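Hey,

The postdoc asked me to send both predictions to you directly instead of through the lab channel. I've kept everything plain text so nothing gets mangled by the mail client. Protein one:
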Amino acid sequence: MPRIIENRATDAITLAQAQEALASRAFNPADEDSLDHAAQLLARLAADRGFLGDLMVAQLRDRHRDMAVESGYGPQAIVLSPLRNGCFLRANIWPSEQESCFHASGAKSFVYGVPHDHNFSFLTAGYFGPGYQSDYYEYD
């Protein structure tokens, strides 16, 4: 179930700095110190307001080269780092119902309205836009 973790970050860090800091210790979502460490790093990365756009432009520019991290996710998920010490970074783009890509591809292409679960724990930070809503359920 979701919970809100206070953002105490006061300065931005680069993607490379976030990757290095996360890789320096294993992520254990059951450990409060580990969880807080990762959450504050993620908040600091999100404070770098230019990194994601710059990364996306570079990936589009270099898409014909074999430089990108392989991803088993759909086109709206951008893998930002490889799995190291039990965690990795990715950025997800969730278009609104008003956007042309949503109309062209449909809600199910983005897993909107499709019940699903995750077999891993994750942290999120809002980077751009109004955020997203989810309904949460428990099952046996």
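Protein two:
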Amino acid sequence: MELHAPKKVVFLDVDGTIAPLDAPIPQSAVDAIRMARQNGAKVLLCTGRSRAELQPNVMAIGFDGMVGGAGAFVDIDGVNIFFAKLEDRQVVEIIDYFDSHAVHGFFQSPAVTYARRASMEAFVAMLGRNVKPGTDPVVIPGIVAKENLYECRDVTKVFFLSEVTSVDEVRDHFSGRFMVINNTIGLPGDRSGELSRLGITKATGMEAVLRFYGCERSDSIAIGDGYNDLEMIEYAGTGIAMGNAVEPLKRLADYVTADIHEDGLYKAFRHTGLID
């Protein structure tokens, strides 16, 4: 691993920032990331996903590391440097509440995400994904079917959805014990969200990365589009919102770039001088 300080450290959300929900990754985004690294910047993913949930086409771009689980773990050059999980008793509390309120939970560890088959079916149905004939409709990359969720270990974050219980109801129930935010991955925002440890955000992972590299906050650039990017954008020396970002993120950002479908990531890299 290199220990000298890079020129800039760039943190990128995945869904809605690098990868559109409804189209291939723009080639301009791939080019921008690769050119920035060639120019001496360190570029890391900063995502709510686990390692296994990252799409092959995203990983093929090439990165210096990742902040995963919305800040719960950090890998640099394939080596883990930070890890913060939920306590086992907290996982039990979450499962018990979900089971009694018809909430589907996806329990994420750094390496894999577990969910019951019924939850995977509900996810596919809510997403409205078309399934090819002859394929298993609930094969979701990075998610493994597990009926006994009480056996899950090293849980860093929980994605959830429900047709009965709203995100606000989940938030009210766990107020003061967990962070609960609305999701921005193409599902109904009032019926799906993320639950994580209090005090653990993408900014937590960013801080660990900057400490590792010996950099200041002013050396960091963050680009995102969703609610779980708020702390990331606020923490960064330069926070940039995609043109397709939620309004609270746009208001918080130092700069709003173009939409993901309009070469927004490439234009953000040009704006900050990462590439010419």
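Summary for protein two, as requested: The domain at 9-84+200-271 is CATH 3.40.50.1000 (Rossmann fold).

Thanks,
C.
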